[in-house]
TrEMBL record, chain B:
Gene3D superfamilies: Sortase (2.40.260.10). GO terms for molecular function: hydrolase activity. This is Class E sortase. It holds the Pfam family Sortase. The active site is at residues 139, 215. Residues 66-86 are annotated as: Disordered. Coiled coil: none annotated. The chain crosses the membrane at residues 20-45. Keywords: Hydrolase, Membrane, Transmembrane, Transmembrane helix. InterPro entries: Sortase (IPR005754), Sortase_Class_E (IPR053465), Sortase_dom-sf (IPR023365), Sortase_E (IPR042003).
Amino acid sequence: MYAWVWRHLPGPWPVRLLIYLAIILGIIAALFFWVFPWVEETFGINRVTVD
Amino acid sequence: MHRKARRGRRRAPKRSPVAVIAGVMGELLLTAGAIVLLFVVYTLWGTGLQTAAAQDDLREEFDLQIQSDDEDESEDESEEPGDLELGDAYGILRIPRFGEDWEWLVVEGVEDDDLRDGPGRYPDNAHAGELGNFAIAGHRSGHGEPFAPFPELHEGDIVEIETRTGIYQYELDSAPNGDPDGNRIEISDSWVVDPVPGEPSSTEPEEARLTLTTCWPRWGSSHRMYASGVLVSEEER
């Protein structure tokens, strides 16, 4: 999977490495800003109120 | 040179389908593990960054409220904090038991979006200093964990809240008293935030009370924990 992505990136290896790191950082940012807050809210794993 | 270029273009050696599937599965499992670890980093640290920024904004907002209240003092004294919207700055909470410098800006509202920014006031409850039950909910894991040492609250502890209308001190008469499981209640035990706790919610209050709620256990939400007290001093602004 990861090797497959690596083989399909364009350019010489330093360019590929940069692109690869950018993709990974982008995915982590998406997790932190959208996915994790959504998980926290949807599954109610951190509720502090009585109702 | 020529040979090297050719080698770079050479295809990976053929693998059996079973080996390919096993390889992909392994990579997926590693990825899942990494995502779980990242989620832990998010709850422990990531959520606190947003909360810290929000607290700065709330403090500015609160200072501005006080300033503008001071400016139109020519008007009557009826500065009701009732015109606040969810997410607005409500006041400053101080609990000496949690440290001399422990100070958190309280927001109006107890929705997830409000509590992300700091401890929140139950919006349908009494205001600080009023007859009834002034109630605040706060996180004790993640989001800056304002109520992290919650079980350390003892009966007799003072909880102070400063709002646009004044400074109010409550003395706790029900608290976990150092027991990590003390004052544990069910999620549905909303009686703790009723105007008169333990009485039907329509009962007319004769006391000005304060109630704090948080989660139990600390790193979960299967139950809740609370502390409660009564107004002992007020200083109008």
